[in-house]
């Protein structure tokens, strides 16, 4: 099939690339066709719609990693290039954006924030044999289909639920109400948490309440929840509704504790909830730039480059690019099947949440969830649950 | 129970205020102005910009500032409504209804994403919030700020009612609603009256926008979409084109949502409210107080 010369060339290229000084002249020979230009990584992120502010955080995080890797010579001797598309956190837009990326010939996907919008893009990439390393979206639905090319590097719903339950028990909650906005991601965590609460022992379930995202007035939901007299409320949706709910719960005289899930961790939730309403608000969250020990350098680099603070999922997007680059380097190729094998073989590669190793169903073996608390108008680390 | 009723009435008064603009425009030129909810959003954003510009005054005299901003934002939003009518709707007034309807949808997107370009996609938080003490009335928790907002909403609706029933302006509006061509022959300046109608309707939506900003605190460029749909529903429940009916429709929708959430849970709220709407319209297609059956879209 191949002449010995070419095989030798590939091997040389692989060696050159692995040693990360890669000017591998013959890199990626097995691809045929477009192996001269940069390796394009696709990224679906919301740049419009209700989660529009997350897109730039993620894009910048990925861009930072790409520039670092390119400065060291790129991958397999080729430069990396990012191509970000707006998925609007909307399934229809996301599918169209994914098709666009596939048509543009991306070699891997490093995007995905809203689980509901990421889910329909999985078959698009999978069919095209393009590996996906999803930095943020973390509904367990994403890995339920066991697609070969799909990897998650954010903790998933059940890992988040475990963290939430650990904190509920630790902080002595008795009657917990769970609220969600009926989106794939939020409902997943809410239903799992409710199921855990239903088990004998530990805190009891006060109720589970659904709100409609995108509205301003949640007084009817607040009244319904408070009727069940909870002493702890867990909101698993996103931050805009989270801020409004926190404020409206406090206005309605609720004195108990409130906790939110990772989708609601954004500085804006504090200003929407207004001042002291947000004080003592807990959150289950994966590692953030300012809660990661020893990430100060990284944050400084980010700030210098983009003249803005990194936001949620900047680090995870940065990691997604690095993981893909590592896998391609190890595989010595950008071929989908080989990269997937390399991804499965990764063991102990350092990312922000700790040493990376994928479980057989392509999730993190360690969730890396921590508990944050709002103190002086900022999210700070409360408990790392270790 | 009393809490549920109060929740419903409070939300309902917002719906009613926005629905009035829908209903007025429909009553006069039979146009479903789908951009109306976005005028509400525009009101909230212009209020936000003005509060930012006022700076120091906002800190020392926040209530006064909010009131001034409310009036100014009504003016701005009203004028935007007039411009919208002049640019997007007037040239199409004799075009098929469907063309006008699509233009309205287009205007809605233009306003939403235009605002996004100017103000950014991130939600904004109002610098002034209405804080207030809580009163307990018949077991319901009512805050003073809620009472004030409902008071403003009612005052605006009463003023509108007087304007339509008592003034010359109002008579001209009603005349056009009955028959635009005859009104024109009788010497009514139809274009001017329609422009005024847009001004009033948009100003009311703008007022609701500023009030929502001041009360809930969060505004974003898509905030007008859902309330636009709800207001449209409220107008239909009450009888689109009929002012009292529209106000009543807003309150009824608020109550339906409040009780729907209570009885069936949040996820069933809209199913319940809109199920009631369908049921209701099959029995009474003209709405609560609608008189004439109009067959045009």
UniProtKB/TrEMBL annotation, chain A:
Domain Leucine-binding protein intervals: 38-377
The keyword Chaperone belongs to this UniProt entry's keyword annotation: no
Signal peptide as annotated in the record: 1-22
Record keywords, A-Z: Amino-acid transport, Signal, Transport
Domain of life: Bacteria
Keyword Membrane among UniProt keywords: no
CDD domains associated with the record: PBP1_ABC_LIVBP-like
Similarity remark: Belongs to the leucine-binding protein family.
Matches recorded under PANTHER family: AMINO ACID BINDING PROTEIN (PTHR47151:SF2), LEU/ILE/VAL-BINDING ABC TRANSPORTER SUBUNIT (PTHR47151)
Name of the protein in its database record: Branched-chain amino acid ABC transporter substrate-binding protein
From TrEMBL, chain B:
Keyword terms: Amino-acid transport, Cell inner membrane, Cell membrane, Membrane, Transmembrane, Transmembrane helix, Transport
Subcellular location: Cell membrane
Source organism: Actinomadura alba
Membrane topology recorded in Swiss-Prot or TrEMBL: Multi-pass membrane protein
Lineage of producing organism: Bacteria, Bacillati, Actinomycetota, Actinomycetes, Streptosporangiales
Protein name per Swiss-Prot or TrEMBL: Branched-chain amino acid ABC transporter permease
Family membership: Belongs to the binding-protein-dependent transport system permease family. LivHM subfamily.
TM stretches of this protein: 6-27, 39-58, 64-84, 96-118, 138-164, 193-215, 221-240, 247-265, 271-290
